[in-house]
Amino acid sequence: MYAGRLKRHKIELAHAPEAEKIFIRLNGIPLYETTMQNTENSKTFQFFVDDELCIITIEKKGNQYAYRFTTPEYSTSRLARLRKWKDRLLLAGIAAVFALVLGGLGAPFIYNYFHTRQLNNNLSLGGMITPAYLTQTPNIDALPNQSITLHYKFRAGLRTITSKTEIPAADSSLLALNSLFPITRNTVLEVLYSGTDPHVNRLLTGNLPQKQTETYRQQARKACMQHSFTNLPVTAGKTLFCDCLLTYLYTHYQLQGLARLCHANTPETENKLLNAATFGAFMQQDLPQEITNICTRNATGSKE
Predict the structure, then answer these.
(1) CA gap 95, 234 in Å, rounded
(2) How many whole angstroms from its chain centre is CA 297?
(3) Which pTM was predicted?
(4) Does CATH number 2.40.128.180 belong to domain 2-72?
């Protein structure tokens, strides 16, 4: 075998297992003349060639021997130590260049990431809207004299987020809703939350999801079917009339229209604001009366 960085050097190895003799020569000059007992499993020889460490290892495997020649990349030799420092400096230079490139190219992306996250957490700029379910019946009677706390939960992706918010005494949206439909634990509102952090959210007390609106609509429809409209001809289809009335009242009066219809049969003793008497007076106004006439014409001739 040959080795050497400065010039070519010939290394010779001779092993006579039966005689238990080992000979190692470098360019014909003896380096080792020693023995290796048959009971030994391995033997290692080290020497330098051109100031480079060389290692010859002999291993016994059963009745045979394996020979391995290695020159470690880093050793205690002068050249090896010098090469080690050169490699370290090279790695440091590569790391410095990589850091500069990453810093120059990555800075805009890093800035954009944190800036986007900050914008997403700013609910005044928008966010995700989803139904929010109240987990406790709030003490609405405390308004408007003092603030109250609403506890709610909502789904954000695969997670269920529980949260709470304080409704100030000056907030009239919840009072307005409660005057139409009593707010209970079963009431569903809407919540606006950050797409990156759902725990950043705001309950929208002035908004109702379609599911809750449909619940109120069904209540109003049931009350309409039970109510006796004096000017409705016998030949008019009650279902068509109520569906028409619901559509027009909600179009022009939103939740207030549904609430008035829901309480079309409510005694005054149960609700002083919305009851059968106030519903009758409401329906005598110009627009509700015009709506009644339109729905009566549509329902005439249709039977249930």
Answers:
(1) 90
(2) 53
(3) 0.51
(4) yes
